[in-house]
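Is this the right way to post structure tokens for a design question? Let me know if I should format differently. Anyway, here goes:
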């Protein structure tokens, strides 16, 4: 079980670093809102986080 927790922590930190390097602080805020919304079972907060991330992904295309 501790190996699974360590592996998931490394995965989350790696994902955060990838988003930070690609999308900057706004990407981290979007990911944070999405994560908090899922953990708190709040559809409004997770939706805001998902929209922020979606806008970052489609921003240059618009």
């Amino acid at each position: 079980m501790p190996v699974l927790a360590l592996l998931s922590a490394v995965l989350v930190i790696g994902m955060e670093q990838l988003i930070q390097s690609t999308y900057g602080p706004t990407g981290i805020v979007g990911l944070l809102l999405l994560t908090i919304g899922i953990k708190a079972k709040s559809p409004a907060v997770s939706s805001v986080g998902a929209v922020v991330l979606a806008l970052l992904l489609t921003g240059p295309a618009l």
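Format looks fine. Someone answered above. Worth noting: The chain has a mean pLDDT of 85. The CA atoms of residues 2 and 17 lie 23 Å apart.
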